[in-house]
Amino acid sequence: MNNAGPTMNEQAAATAFSKQAPLFDTLYSSDSIIQYKRMRVRECVIKSLGPESHILELNAGTGDDAIFFAQRGHTVHATDISAGMQSLLEEKVIKNDLQNYITHELVSYTNLENLFERGPYDMIFSNFAGLNCTNDLPAVLRSFDSLLKPGGFATLVILPKFCLWEFLLFFKGKFKTAFRRFSGDKGAKAHIEGEYFRCWYYNSSVIREQLKDSFDMVGLEGLCTIAPPSYLQGFAQKYPKTFQWLIKKENKWKDKWPWKAIGDYYIITLKKKGN
């Protein structure tokens, strides 16, 4: 990694999410599928946390996860490249009187060598595919070793190169969406609040290969493999019994092949060697 500033793609993504920030919580806080996703991710993180753990959160957004963990006695350094997201996070921290538990920093995860608070941390955490906004995920991963304590964990939520739900949209004539994960090195175009940027898709093998010398993989689960992804808006409200049945099946098979590899996301947890 070098000391260069944010790439053009990162700057475009930061602008997009800053524009979305005032609407973000209203759009997503009451969505049943998103709440299910948050619950699943938090359960994975909690398994790896000891009492009063020190967490580095990447792409922290408006701070919902940071607040969740802080309210349970952990300290969180919440980072993001979006000034709009960081501003809302700061407001929430003050509102919830969590200044002693949450610090925050406007910084890209591609520039972690310049992180103000370098830890070392017990956990590095990134939710909901923020890391898919870089075309050089291995460069980000290389920074983890120096930021984590021996025996520390990294839990990342990533978009893989194939999603069963998305591919099935082929049969509804939504060809662009069905095949967007096959975009390769050029990435797929994303669009938020009138701003365009690209995202890239990574299978878990990329992460395992990059971190194999210093980390062991200790968990891999599919997320929204059987349960529907959140872009199927209104599904949970329209088909509540079916939604709950799908969640039940997903929770049973989430870490089994092929379900752990073909979801909208996967949750991967790695442990740093040495303890």
Beta-strand percentage range: 15-25%
Distance between the termini: 27 Å
Report the mean per-residue pLDDT as an integer.
Answer: 95
Largest sheet: 7 strands, mixed
Q: Based on CA inertia axes, which overall geometry fits?
A: globular
Number of helices: 11
Q: Taking strands numbered 1, 2, ... along the chain, how are they ordered across the largest sheet?
A: 3-2-1-4-5-9-8
Could you say which structural class the secondary elements and strand pairing correspond to? alpha/beta
Note poorly predicted spans.
none
Give helix and strand order, one letter per element, not per position.
HHEHEHEEHHEHHEEHEHHE
Number of strands: 9
Cα Rg: 18 Å
Q: What is the assembly state of the chains in this entry?
A: single chain
Helix content: 25-40%
Structure description:
It is a single chain. This protein is α/β, with parallel strands linked by helices and 275 residues long. Helix content is 37%, strand content 22%. It has eleven helices and nine strands. A seven-stranded mixed beta sheet has the order 3-2-1-4-5-9-8, with helices on both faces.
Short description:
The chain has eleven helices and nine strands. It has 275 residues and is of the alpha/beta class.
